[in-house]
Write a structure and sequence with these properties.
The radius of gyration is 25 Å and the shape is elongated. The protein has 416 residues and is mostly helical. Among the domains are: 91 residues; 111 residues, no CATH class. Helices cover 67% and strands 0% of the residues. Helix 5 packs antiparallel against helix 6, helix 11 packs antiparallel against helix 12 and helix 11 packs parallel to helix 13. It starts with a helix and ends in an 18-residue tail after the last helix.
């Protein structure tokens, strides 16, 4: 990595954040920082890399922004400096600025797709074509989305200042949701193209590291980072040589990233102070999966208990689907099916492929082979990713055909 590339990765977001807060204009800050990096590309090879690259970039970007403001003033000769905040000190690293930039990009007043786009553009530094490719939308569509989002920030007077402590928790929940959405889109991408988009996973983890560094005492952010690391630790084992998705139970655990798993465990060990949140619970579940030497040795009763806790902390039909799978492993498939039936009978998740895949697995293990095959096929039809769809179709083709249909029990079997 060249010094300029390192500065872009390590300093850029901080410089944008500092200028955005002091200028009150996100697009002007972004343009000025881009001009500053262009100046660095022209200057540093001959003059050498400054001792403090971030300070050099901040000062240069500030001057670029002032030049733009001078050109845009209708009356010639206006002293712009008299109406602007004082220029940032060289080398000053106000980390509150970076946190506020993240909070602004993820403001709850913005649509969720706008929050994602702003965060990837202005905090992670991805280009418009890169973001558009990551979410499989035309570049023009993504550019318009960014313009609308920045316009809303300006027109709604969304502040670049840190909110009061009592509001910070609510705003931080929005940040966490955005970061996890970016990660999950990378972990199993929607639409055509590769099943896994490593670059989106990497960006989500990097962004979460920045927030966790700024707020090390926030256990939910730490839990979210641990969750991402645990899920991403399996990236190399999730596909075979032909690019096909490999089911969790069939993955080669020697290909899992042991360092990422160890880091996640260390992070989780620092949580547990105060109220337990959904990301901490999900990370604890993922850690139990990672801890088992083989699929057969997974502690399903403990995982089922944790899903029960998650259902109380952050209840949703999706949590119920995952809980049903765990209960089906811990208490038998009939118990899992009993939990799943109410979700199947309502319409909210009718088009949710994992619901039908979970049902198929439970039916197959309960002996209803015909029902399992139909459910596998339904899951494949609903999948938004070709690689996942192919994997589900293979499961449908492998399902046994000879056993009689399973009759649903009226209630779940309890662990003794």
């Amino acid at each position: 990595m060249t010094p300029l590339e390192r500065a872009f990765r390590e300093e850029r977001a901080q410089v944008v954040a500092t200028l955005a807060r002091r200028l009150g204009d996100l697009q002007l800050a972004e343009d000025a920082v881009s001009d500053a990096f262009a100046a660095a590309a022209a200057t540093w090879p001959a003059a050498g890399v400054p001792d403090r690259p971030g300070a050099w970039l901040t000062t240069t970007a500030w001057r670029k922004a002032l030049d733009v403001l001078r050109r845009d003033r209708s009356a010639p000769g206006v002293a712009v400096e008299a109406t602007m905040p004082p220029a940032p000190e060289p080398g000053l690293r106000d980390e509150d600025d970076l946190l506020q930039l993240v909070l602004t990009c993820c403001h709850p007043a913005l649509a969720i797709d706008a929050r994602v786009a702003l965060t990837l553009r202005h905090v992670a530094g991805l280009s418009v074509p890169e973001i558009a490719a990551g979410f499989l939308v035309p570049e023009e569509t993504m550019a318009k989305r960014l313009v609308r989002a920045r316009t809303k920030i300006r027109q709604s007077r969304i502040s670049f200042e840190l909110p009061e402590p009592e509001v910070l928790g609510e705003r931080l929940a929005s940040v966490q949701a955005v970061l996890y959405l970016v990660f999950t889109e990378g972990h199993l991408a929607s639409g055509d193209g590769p099943a896994v988009r490593i670059e989106l996973c990497d960006e989500a983890i990097w962004l979460t590291r920045q927030v966790q560094r700024l707020l090390p005492d926030d256990c939910e952010t730490t839990g979210l980072l641990a969750l991402m690391l645990l899920q991403h630790s399996r990236a190399e084992a999730r596909h075979d040589g032909a690019g096909r998705l490999v089911p969790f139970a069939e993955q080669d655990r020697s290909r899992w990233d042991a360092r990422a798993i160890a880091e996640a465990r260390e992070l989780l060990a620092t949580t547990g102070r105060g109220r337990v949140g959904q990301y901490q619970i999900q990370a604890a579940i993922a850690a139990l999966h990672a801890a088992a030497p083989t699929t057969e040795e997974i502690n399903w009763p403990r995982i089922a208990d944790l899903y029960g806790l998650l259902d109380r902390v952050a209840a949703s039909p999706v949590v119920t689907v995952n809980r049903a799978v765990a209960v089906g492993r811990a208490d038998g498939p009939r118990a899992g099916i009993a939990l799943l039936l109410p979700v199947l009978e309502e319409s909210r998740l009718a088009a949710y492929a994992p619901l039908h895949a979970a049902y198929a697995d439970l039916l197959e293990r309960a002996g209803d082979d015909a029902g399992a095959t139909a459910a596998w096929r339904r899951a494949a039809e609903l999948s938004r990713n070709p690689a996942e769809q192919a994997a589900l179709e293979r499961r449908a083709a492998r399902a046994p055909r000879a056993r009689p249909p399973f009759r649903h029990a009226k209630g779940p079997h309890r662990r003794k």
